[in-house]
User: Which sequence fits this backbone?
């Protein structure tokens, strides 16, 4: 009984303290009051503790009344304030979120006329598709058939392939593609690298070394007169790269010929104009002869094969002779002049070799090869492979 009276006395003392605090206009009310009631006594039967916390922050003086009431086992609090006591200059924070709302349809339904970009549904004709991706509908459908179905991806399969091909053709940044397709940048980058891996694996057989019989059967008329045993035309090309972060990489990738940082690879095309061999990528410092000898290209040649090349491959002549293959290069100047026969030979070789220059020109229409950023450098072999596959899927380079 004495213990209950003691608790009741403490309770009355707390109420008296609160009333004095609320009625005193000189008190600073920009504090936090914590009122604890019924600490484990008989008024709180099933609860051990009960507390009330009130924050009077930024509320002007004498603009409110705070009261506590007790009726039997019930405890209540009440605040009475005048309207409009909030400070107009008080700044409120709002919740913010990233990414599209799952309940919002950003793409209009198919067939609905509006000015928004609908992904693949916005492509109405083949000209538009070629401008965006560099492919026809037939090639697009073929590549689409190589991709597996996934139910967990937030982007449909056609739009995933469209994102990939737009990156290859237009070299749009991942951020720009994320705006067009209304997804996060990391979703776009993850989609690109995922499709890159899948297509490289599925299309690895689309660049192959044809048999000698196949080359002979498809040899264009322009080759039959002077170079009937031509197996392929070879050359190296360079692609600009952003400045590497380390000194070792800069030394390895700096090209004195281009005067900047590049990567270089060897390409071989058949006389009919299709790609038959692509080496891995090397630093721009590597010579054409070194890449040819190191890439394993010479192991594919058979005795009697003719290889057309420019003047940058004298270092492979010995290996070609050891394999009983014939390296056809333009004559080298002697004392700054060429004989009449050498001029005619140079013209004849150049008129045939021009086809590999046409291949490189077609290959570099893919914007991603204009300048490789550092973040894409680890994937450069796969990117070059895909660009060569897409070039092979275009109409023939040499018309029969």
Assistant:
């Amino acid at each position: 009984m004495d213990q209950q009276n003691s608790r009741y006395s403490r309770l009355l003392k707390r109420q008296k303290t609160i009333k004095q605090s609320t009625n005193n206009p000189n008190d600073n009310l920009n504090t936090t009051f914590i009122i604890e009631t019924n600490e484990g006594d008989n008024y709180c039967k099933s609860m051990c503790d009960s507390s009330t916390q009130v924050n009077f922050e930024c509320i002007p003086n004498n603009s409110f009344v705070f009261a506590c009431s007790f009726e039997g086992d019930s405890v209540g609090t009440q605040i009475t304030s005048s309207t409009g006591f909030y400070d107009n200059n008080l700044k409120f924070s709002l919740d913010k979120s990233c990414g599209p709302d799952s309940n919002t349809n950003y793409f209009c339904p198919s067939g609905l006329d509006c000015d928004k970009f609908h992904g693949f549904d916005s492509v109405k004709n083949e000209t538009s598709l070629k401008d965006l991706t560099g492919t026809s509908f037939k090639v697009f459908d073929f590549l689409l058939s190589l991709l597996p179905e996934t139910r967990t991806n937030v982007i449909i399969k056609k739009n995933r392939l469209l994102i990939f091909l737009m990156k290859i053709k237009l070299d749009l940044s991942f951020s720009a593609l994320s705006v067009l397709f209304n997804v996060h940048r990391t979703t776009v980058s993850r989609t690109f690298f995922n499709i890159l891996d899948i297509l490289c694996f599925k299309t690895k057989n689309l660049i192959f070394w044809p048999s000698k019989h196949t080359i002979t059967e498809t040899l264009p008329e322009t080759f039959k007169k002077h170079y009937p045993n031509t197996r392929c035309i070879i050359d190296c090309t360079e692609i600009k790269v952003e400045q590497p972060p380390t000194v070792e990489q800069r030394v390895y990738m700096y090209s004195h010929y281009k005067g900047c940082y590049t990567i270089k690879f060897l390409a071989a095309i058949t006389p009919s104009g299709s790609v038959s061999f692509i080496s891995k990528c090397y630093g721009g410092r590597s010579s054409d002869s070194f890449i040819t000898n190191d890439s394993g290209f010479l192991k594919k040649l058979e005795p009697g094969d003719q290889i057309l090349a420019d003047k940058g491959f004298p270092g492979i002549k010995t290996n070609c002779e050891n394999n009983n293959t014939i390296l056809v290069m333009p004559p080298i100047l002697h004392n700054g002049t060429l004989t009449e026969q050498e001029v005619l030979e140079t013209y004849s070789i150049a008129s045939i070799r021009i086809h590999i220059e046409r291949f490189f020109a077609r290959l570099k229409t893919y914007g991603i090869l204009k300048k490789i950023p550092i973040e894409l450098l680890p994937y450069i072999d796969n990117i070059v492979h895909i660009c060569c596959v897409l070039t092979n899927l275009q109409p023939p380079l040499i018309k029969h």
